[in-house]
């Protein structure tokens, strides 16, 4: 862990107390209100030196430390995407902080477009694996041999099983699928979507994969869930836009909140 992670942890503990955090939650579009349900302390990203910029509309750039369903969590109300500044490692300070605070695992959420007819806008998809369609990597430039991170079980089987069980208990459909990371900020072309389908992708989005790589690099266990906001380009007549994403995200977010709360209540 870098010195910056330790320094950030000291700053955060001075505001939020010394009790260790167990789990990190990275909130995607439509889930910002979940941070408000945490009984704890909210710290604006701007007050944390070196923290990600996270300047996308529809996100709430606060770190919230506290209790949610009886579990001490660190909730990241926004993420900095690669397309904002061209830095795939933008979320490294946030994940280093989570590790320094005692975190063992991170659950990432995102908004995504579906490539499958049986997964529609308003549905959820649990990531079974991912495709780094962008070809970028947040560990480029890392000087140690730790950069050679095995990714065979990057999406932790035990966490996925627990999330599936929580979804079943809540009566929420949670199919699994492969998520493809597209750099953005422009949306994909129909030809690119056809290519991703041939490669085995089930959903596409502009985040999450860098965080999964970084988290595994740091020894954190990872699971991720997509909220489906649209069918990918060429698969429907709907007009894809960021405003459309923000409007549709709350449909799946309500289901996702139920799943996450149940998951936390039964976390072992």
UniProtKB/TrEMBL annotation:
InterPro entries: Nucleoside_phosphorylase_d, Nucleoside_phosphorylase_sf, PUNP, Purine_phosphorylase
Associated pathway: Purine metabolism; purine nucleoside salvage
Residues the entry annotates as binding a purine D-ribonucleoside: 188, 230
Keywords, ordered alphabetically: Glycosyltransferase, Transferase
GO biological process: nucleoside metabolic process
Domain Nucleoside phosphorylase, chain residue ranges per copy: 22-265
Sample GO molecular function, one term: purine-nucleoside phosphorylase activity
Residue numbers binding phosphate: 29, 59, 79-81, 111, 207
Any single GO CC term annotated in Swiss-Prot or TrEMBL for this entry: cytoplasm
Glycosyltransferase is among the record's keywords: yes
Domain of life: Bacteria
Cross-referenced Pfam families: PNP_UDP_1
EC number: 2.4.2.1
UniProt family annotation: Belongs to the PNP/MTAP phosphorylase family.
Subunit and partners: Homotrimer.
Function per UniProt: The purine nucleoside phosphorylases catalyze the phosphorolytic breakdown of the N-glycosidic bond in the beta-(deoxy)ribonucleoside molecules, with the formation of the corresponding free purine bases and pentose-1-phosphate.
Protein name listed in UniProt: Purine nucleoside phosphorylase
Species of origin: Paragemmobacter kunshanensis
